[in-house]
Design goal:
By secondary structure, this protein is mostly beta strands. The protein has 5 domains: 56 residues, no CATH class; 110 residues, Immunoglobulins (Immunoglobulin-like); 106 residues, Immunoglobulin-like; 104 residues, Immunoglobulin-like; 226 residues, no CATH class. The protein contains 4 helices and 44 strands. A 7-stranded antiparallel sheet has the order 36-37-38-33-40-41-44. Strands 9-11-7-5-13 form a 5-stranded mixed sheet, with no helix packed on it. A 5-stranded mixed sheet has the order 6-14-12-8-10, with no helix packed on it. Strand 42 and strand 43 form a beta hairpin. Helix 3 packs across helix 4. It starts with a helix and ends in an 8-residue tail after the last strand.
Length: 658
């Protein structure tokens, strides 16, 4: 008993020496000696009681980083160098890195800073990614470890995250250190973990459009136009859709396509086209089903399908290729033939029984099959059809060639159409004006016949092909004509427009050139050439003989008027008949003595619907004289006349001035 008492006395005496303890029950506060005695969110105040960290106090702190000098000791910054807190590790921004909502393929970089806020150095022995961390995370440190972190020093670690698929990713960074403690506190400063995470917002849903496509009819061995099915992500924000399966089933041999490889990542609002072409090889109906599966948020959109349908058997097994024939810009009176092929695109042989134009008319279209009817057309075979168009008047013609086949009530048709025009034409007549005999001749004229020999030429301007009297004009006398080849500018003809029988000879008085029919556009020059004043007849007398005849007739020794005529650009039969008798009594010096000679040119353009004519006059001074009378500008459908300088136009019926 005495032993116990003595102990009580000693304990009582010891307690009496301690300062009085606060009564936490009475005052409602918790006594403390350091911050660790307080609850989370509280610190140990200077009065020895726990208080909220929000309370402001002089020189108060929570961690060493709150102190401008020294360290945080029991909630108070102190610079007492005698206090050794050792090495302290501090992570900035903390032990979590949030990469937010990433976009596919876009790198996001975060920085993690490992600081030393203590009073002694420590080492970071190892930095590595956790075993469950996605390969889409990577770390970067300026130099290789281990790394010594001096007091106040730091280690910078870059963490880079690049989203490569449509899934959110988690991970962690593991640190192995020699630090004595952490700020804020941690369970084990020697082994720390920093967590990574990213968060998607919105939703992702598979879309497929259109849900069905009908290619209709496409013949065997032919290919349709491409049709497209679009796969899309109908989600919102940045949530990426992952398509993990794309399959086709059904008539795969009848379609041509290339499927995207999977997994396929699709951004919201993005579309991925898949193109299909229908190319049947057999005579059947075909259906193809496209099935697509993805990680849609809506269960009813995880798997969607599109149906593609087509048919190879045609509604009509006979088709024309080309389906129409058009004849364009064909001159009236000419013919052109175009061809088409009647092809069997069905699955069975077809017997052709008849073919005819729908109008029943023989002109202007005629058609025939390249085989006698009835004709059996096998599947895939064809037979030619020739259609000839021969317009007989200006305008447009349409018709339809019809072919009937056994077992079919309606014919297969080939529409034909023709556009034509009347090519322009022109007639040019040229010769000497009919002259009166001169008054100084004592002979009495017995008639009035031009004796001047005027040649007409019609030339492609400036120096092209020419249509004129040939060296042997017999083809143009007596109602005939001589052909002139103007090359690409068409054809023309020359002929004797006016003829006269002089004795036993046929003389050319006026010449005519006619240019009509199609040809390239060009300008043409009409020219007059005065060879001499004696008319040229086939095998006829020369101008010398005619001149001698006239000289003798007018200036003979009798000096009286007789029944012979004077040769003054007019010649009479009697003189021509007697010229051989008197030719030896005169010379040829007076054949062109009495020029000049008026020339008349008459022009008609019947293709323009005009019934009238235009008359142009010019005067040639003597033998060898030439003159451009008019130019003619020709197009595909018209001819335009331009009068040349020195040429006079008169009204029809008037006489060219002498």
């Amino acid at each position: 008993m005495t032993y116990i008492f003595k102990q009580w006395l000693v304990l009582t005496a010891f307690l009496a020496l301690l300062p009085a303890c606060p009564n936490d029950l009475a005052g409602g506060q918790v006594p403390c000696a350091e911050d660790n005695h307080c609850s989370i969110g509280e610190i140990c105040g200077t009065d020895g009681y726990c208080t909220s960290t929000e309370n402001v106090r002089d020189n108060g702190c929570v961690t060493n980083t709150d102190c401008t000098e020294g360290i945080c000791e029991n909630g108070i910054c102190t610079s007492d160098v005698g206090v050794d807190v050792g090495s302290v590790l501090f992570l900035e921004p903390g032990n979590e890195l949030d990469f937010g909502s990433p976009a596919l393929g876009v790198a996001i970089e975060k920085s993690l800073i490992v600081k030393n806020v203590g009073q002694a150095a420590y080492s970071v022995l190892d930095v590595r990614l956790g075993a469950d961390t996605s390969d889409e995370f990577e770390i970067e440190i300026a130099n290789t470890g281990p790394w010594v972190i001096e007091v106040g020093g730091q280690l910078d670690i870059k963490v880079r995250y690049t989203l490569a698929d449509g899934e959110e990713d988690l991970g962690s960074l593991l640190l192995t250190t020699t630090a004595e403690r952490c700020e804020p506190g941690c369970e084990n400063p020697a082994a720390l973990s920093v967590d990574f995470f990213s968060e998607f917002k919105g939703e992702r849903n598979l879309g497929i459009s259109p849900p069905s496509i009908d290619f209709g009819y496409v013949g065997i061995g032919e290919s349709s136009a491409p049709e497209t099915v679009t796969l899309s992500n109908d989600g919102t924000l940045d949530k990426i859709l992952t398509v993990y399966s794309i399959e086709v089933t059904g008539a795969t041999d009848a379609f041509q396509y290339t499927l995207p490889s999977t997994p396929l990542y699709i951004f919201p609002g993005q579309g991925v086209p898949v193109e299909f072409v229908y190319a049947p090889t057999d005579c059947d109906d075909h259906i193809l089903t496209l099935t697509v599966s993805a990680n849609s948020d809506s269960p009813d959109k995880e798997t969607l399908t599109a149906t593609l349908s087509a048919t190879a058997p045609p509604p009509n097994p006979l088709v024309f290729d080309p389906p129409t024939l058009l004849f364009s810009d064909l001159p009236v009176g000419e013919s052109e033939t175009l061809s088409s092929s009647l092809k069997s695109v069905g699955c069975d042989a077809v017997t052709l029984t008849s073919g005819q134009m729908a109008s029943g008319a023989f002109q202007p279209f005629t058609a025939n099959l390249a085989g006698s009817l009835p004709y059996v057309l096998q599947p895939g075979a064809s037979i030619g059809v020739n259609v000839t168009y021969t317009p007989n008047q200006a305008g447009t013609n349409v018709d339809t060639y019809q072919v009937y086949a056994q077992g079919f009530s309606d014919p297969v048709t080939l529409p034909v159409a023709g556009q034509n025009y009347v090519p322009p034409s022109i007639s040019v007549v040229m010769g000497p004006e009919r002259l009166q005999t001169e008054s100084n001749c004592m002979c009495t004229p017995a008639g009035d016949l031009p004796a001047a020999n005027v040649d007409l030429s019609y030339r492609v301007s400036p120096n092209g092909a020419t249509c004129a009297k040939p060296s042997n004009p017999s083809c143009g006398i007596g109602g005939g004509s001589c052909d002139c080849n103007l090359g690409a500018y068409g054809n023309a003809t020359w002929r004797a427009y006016t003829e006269a029988q002089v004795g036993s000879e046929l003389w050319v008085i006026d010449e005519e050139v006619v240019h009509d029919g199609p040809g390239e556009a060009a300008d043409f020059v009409v020219k007059a050439n005065l060879l001499d004043d004696c008319l040229l007849g086939t095998g006829g007398a020369s101008y010398t003989i005619l001149a001698n005849c006239c000289i003798f007739d007018c200036e003979g020794t009798s000096g009286t008027e007789g029944n012979r005529a004077c040769f003054d650009y007019s010649q009479f039969n009697v003189c021509a008949n007697d010229c051989p008798f008197y030719s030896s009594q005169a010379t040829s010096s007076r054949c062109m003595k009495r020029g000049p000679v008026p020339i008349r040119t008459t022009v008609k353009i019947p293709s323009d619907g005009s019934e009238g004519a235009r008359v142009f006059c010019a005067t040639l001074s003597g033998a060898g004289a030439t003159k451009d009378i008019i130019t003619v500008s020709k197009t595909q459908t018209s001819m335009t006349i331009t009068q040349m300088p020195g040429v006079t136009e008169i009204s029809p019926g008037q006489t060219c001035p002498q």
